[in-house]
């Protein structure tokens, strides 16, 4: 906006009482996702299966022994493998793959993210190609994301 003002370009505004946030930072994007998932923002989830606080979009494959505790949003065509635990709040974007025996809590996964087997993720905004087989473990056998 400062550049627009310095160039004498018009800057307009719109007054609203609706929820609005600038999602230009990872922290803001994470917060907006959590707000929507936890009901602070009115959002419709068309064609999703609702089970208490869990929303599962069409085309998902979820292992029968996966442990799901909402609030959760599992995006279209995502795969949750055997032994995975999702402890909400968790947002899984479309076309994600959650590996076997993986634990995820208080996390947002962007579309197309692949989480390898045996990963432990608590708190974070994770994007496609963010975690690899080489860096998933710490000395204690855990992968811990930085809190956002």
UniProtKB/TrEMBL annotation:
This is Mannose-1-phosphate guanyltransferase C-terminal domain-containing protein. It comes from Dictyobacter kobayashii. Gene3D superfamilies: Hexapeptide repeat proteins. Transmembrane segments: none annotated. It comes from the Bacteria. SUPFAM superfamilies: Trimeric LpxA-like enzymes. Residues 69-130 form the Mannose-1-phosphate guanyltransferase C-terminal domain. InterPro entries: GMPPB_C, Mannose-1P_guanyltransferase, Trimer_LpxA-like_sf. It holds the Pfam family GMPPB_C.
């Amino acid at each position: 906006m400062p550049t627009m003002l310095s160039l004498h370009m018009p800057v307009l505004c719109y007054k609203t009482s609706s929820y609005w946030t600038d999602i230009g930072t990872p922290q803001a994007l994470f917060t907006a996702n959590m707000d929507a998932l936890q009901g602070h923002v009115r959002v419709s989830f068309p064609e999703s299966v609702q089970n208490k606080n869990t929303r599962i979009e069409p085309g998902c494959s979820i292992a029968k022994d996966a442990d799901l505790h909402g609030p959760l949003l599992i995006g279209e065509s995502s795969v949750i493998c055997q032994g995975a635990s999702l402890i909400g709040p968790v947002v899984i974007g479309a076309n994600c793959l959650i590996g076997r025996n993986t634990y995820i809590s208080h996390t947002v996964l962007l579309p197309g993210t692949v989480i390898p087997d045996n990963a432990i993720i608590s708190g974070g905004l994770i994007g496609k190609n963010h975690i690899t087989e080489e860096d998933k473990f710490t000395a204690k056998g855990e992968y811990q994301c930085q809190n956002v």
